[in-house]
């Protein structure tokens, strides 16, 4: 539990097209700094998949419960996808802040638009592919989507890339060409905050 007088680290919002490398870069951060970061846990009305635990991958809730929470203004952002509601609650971000870790949010363009309307004091980072063609290649090589899902992601990527060019949306753009170069650049953006968090953690032990 964090002491009362301290300021919580600034959350970091990651966005970027599917396949741009957000998960790859975030995984590297977790690996190098295992205690510095934590994801905020989203709510969803979709059913848990085998192996998923309530409160771990998601807070799994019934639709009426989530609608009630939405009415009570308990979410920073929410969206409907494939007939299911998804959202980041204010409490989910506070829960991470209370552990003293840097809260990571991974949001799409609409999520960023919505969360920007709130008073969340976050660092907004856009992970960009080096080019549209390379994004397409990475999505195909990843072999996790079928052709129609790839087409959909590529269409969304175009919109996302346009949005990233709007002034005042993102604080930083990380071009993920060479992975190590991109990672070191990202690390440089966050290192002050990471050092503060890890220093506090070792002082508490
Ligand atoms: N710099 C890089 N060079 C080459 N390949 C990369 C690089 N960064 C990521 N990749 C590969 O590109 C693919 C997409 O990366 P990743 O899954 O991290 O994207 P993502 O942005 O998290 O996508 P999604 O939003 O769909 O989860 C993966 O197969 C990953 O291994």
From TrEMBL:
One GO MF term attached to the UniProt entry: ATP binding
Enzyme class, broadest EC rank: transferase
Keyword Transmembrane tagged: no
Coiled coil: 132-160
SMART domains: GuKc
Keywords per UniProt: ATP-binding, Coiled coil, Kinase, Nucleotide-binding, Transferase
Superkingdom of source: Eukaryota
GO CC entries: cytosol
Similarity-based family: Belongs to the guanylate kinase family.
NCBIfam families listed in its UniProt record: guanyl_kin
Protein's name in the database: guanylate kinase
Protein species of origin: Didymodactylos carnosus
Species classification: Eukaryota, Metazoa, Spiralia, Gnathifera, Rotifera
């Amino acid at each position: 539990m964090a002491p009362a007088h301290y300021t919580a680290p600034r959350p970091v919002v990651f966005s970027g097209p599917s396949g741009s490398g957000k998960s790859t870069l975030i995984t590297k951060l977790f690996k190098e700094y295992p205690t510095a970061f934590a994801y905020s846990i989203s709510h969803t009305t979709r059913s848990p998949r085998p192996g998923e635990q309530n409160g771990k991958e998601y807070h799994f809730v019934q639709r009426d419960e989530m609608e009630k929470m939405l009415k009570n203004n308990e979410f920073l952002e929410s969206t409907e996808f494939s007939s299911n509601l998804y959202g980041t609650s204010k409490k989910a971000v506070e829960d991470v802040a209370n552990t003293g870790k840097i809260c990571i949010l991974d949001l799409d363009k609409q999520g960023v638009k919505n969360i920007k309307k709130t008073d969340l004091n976050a660092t907004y980072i856009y992970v960009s592919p080096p080019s549209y063609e390379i994004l397409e290649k990475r999505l195909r090589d990843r072999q996790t989507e079928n052709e129609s899902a790839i087409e959909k992601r590529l269409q969304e990527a175009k919109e996302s890339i346009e949005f990233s060019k709007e002034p005042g949306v993102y604080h930083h753009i990380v071009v993920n060409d060479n992975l190590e170069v991109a990672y070191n650049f990202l690390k440089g953006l966050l290192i002050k905050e990471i050092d503060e968090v890890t220093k506090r953690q070792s002082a508490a032990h």
